[in-house]
Amino acid sequence: MLVLGIETSCDETAAAVVGDAHPRIHANCVLSQLTEHARFGGVVPEIAARAHLEHLDGLIAEALAVAGIGFTDLDAVAATGGPGLIGGVIVGVMEAKAIALARGIPFIAVNHLEGHALTVRLTDDVEFPYLLLLISGGHCQLLVAEGVGRYRRLGTTIDDAAGEAFDKGAKLLGLGFPGGPAIERAASAGDAGRFPLPRPMKGRPGCDFSFSGLKTALRQAAEALGDGEGRLAPQDAADLAASLQAAIGDSLIDRTAQAIAAFQRSHPAGHTLVVAGGVAANAALRARLGALAAARGLRFVAPPIALCTDNGAMIAWAGLERLRLGIVDRLDFAPRPRWPLDPTAAPAAGAGVKA
Ligand code: KG4
Ligand code: ZN
Fold it and tell me: Is the CB of 157 under 6 A from ligand 1?
């Protein structure tokens, strides 16, 4: 079985070919729009949509060439159907529908978050149920993955996502975009203990997150050190980056520890903690989550770094998992700017919730 996966929900244009026999990934082509957005310090939706439109055909051709196959060899085509920047999602969905119609093969609309959630089943032998910490630029959630299409949300952010905290922090410190890798690099030369930034939500009951206060505290600490024009000495920036990464990490660890306790009560058969999403590329965080899982008697699985940030392989794989269960979509599927993994979850207190 071979599935083409298309990802266009944010600032990566991606196409991949994935099969069910090992090795599963036949091609995984990602074109990052970094240079297009860098001068704005963030992703500009209209620019992203136009860039997807411009590059997607070529990227699909490249993926098929790398896989050594043609359109006739595909069993299905999957595209991110949401959540995400709607202009980009429309580009990917229309392309996938056109291929499905022309080739007479099934079209599968994949929830981008499910793509992240199932990546570990593409790369590792991971059985349901597992506890999932999904941390990306737009999302920060703790979920129990009970099966394909079956997720129970334990917690979410009441304001910013973890990736946003990294991105906004990096912007504030003048470290560039995207912020996660920039903060991680700067933090490696910094003193994490120098600035006592807050640990949002730490010690609170439940599993919800909050990061917006951290950003304010970082700004105040940076302003107290700057030269009045926002410039920071390299060591100060490194120490602030390290302090920010430690604070985000402490908050994520505390919330995940809460979720592990709930997971072990509700799903005694479950024995795996999984981290996914762009922020899961952070080495310090992976190490801390691994240690937490070990201390609680859980196996810890994180996707390879290249499959943490957005890619087409995760969409193709989620499509393949759905196809195996006979779950396919109609060609009148409407792209969804919002698409929660657990539609039954109550909104977190504090609103501003991303689902
Ligand atoms: O999953 P992703 O590629 O896109 C979304 O679905 O949002 O995640 C992107 C996010 C960005 O906020 C980026 O700064 C963050 O992942 N990120 C990292 C690292 N690499 C990417 N955050 C912390 N450390 C990293 N090494
Ligand atoms: Zn993502």
Answer: no
Look up residue 327 and give its two tokens: 């779950």
Q: For residue 354, what pLDDT is reported?
A: 47
Same domain for 264 and 318? no
What's the structural domain count of the chain?
A: 2
d(CA 202, CA 251): 6
10 lines ligand 1 (CB under 6 A): yes
For residues 40 and 112, membership in a common domain is answered with yes
Q: How far is the CA of 227 from the centre of ligand 1 (A)?
A: 30
What is the DSSP secondary structure assignment for residue 209, as one 8-state letter?
B
User: For 56-65, 235-244, 304-313, 341-350, which range has the lowest pLDDT when averaged over its residues?
Assistant: 341-350
Quote the domain boundaries for residue 275.
128-304
7 CB less than 6 Å from ligand 1?
no
Inside any domain, residue 311: yes
What pTM did the predictor assign?
A: 0.95
299-347 pLDDT, tens digit each: 999 999 999 999 999 999 999 999 999 999 999 999 999 999 999 998 7
> How many angstroms separate the alpha carbon of residue 113 from the centre of ligand 2?
7
Q: 348: closest CA among 84, 154, 203?
A: 154
User: Do 42 and 21 fall into the same domain?
Assistant: yes
Specify the CATH number for the domain of residue 318.
3.30.420.40
Could you identify the atom of ligand 1 that is nearest to the CA of residue 245? 23
Co-location of 28 and 163 in the same domain: no
Ligand nearest to the CA of 85: 1
226 CA → ligand 2 middle, Å: 33
Confidence band for 353, pLDDT divided at 50, 70 and 90: very low
Position 27 in a domain: yes
Q: Return d(Cα 190, Cα 117) in angstroms, integer.
A: 32
Taking the centre of ligand 2 as the mean of its atom positions, its distance from the CA of residue 196, in whole angstroms, is: 30
∠ CA(260), CA(263), CA(267), 5° rounding? 145
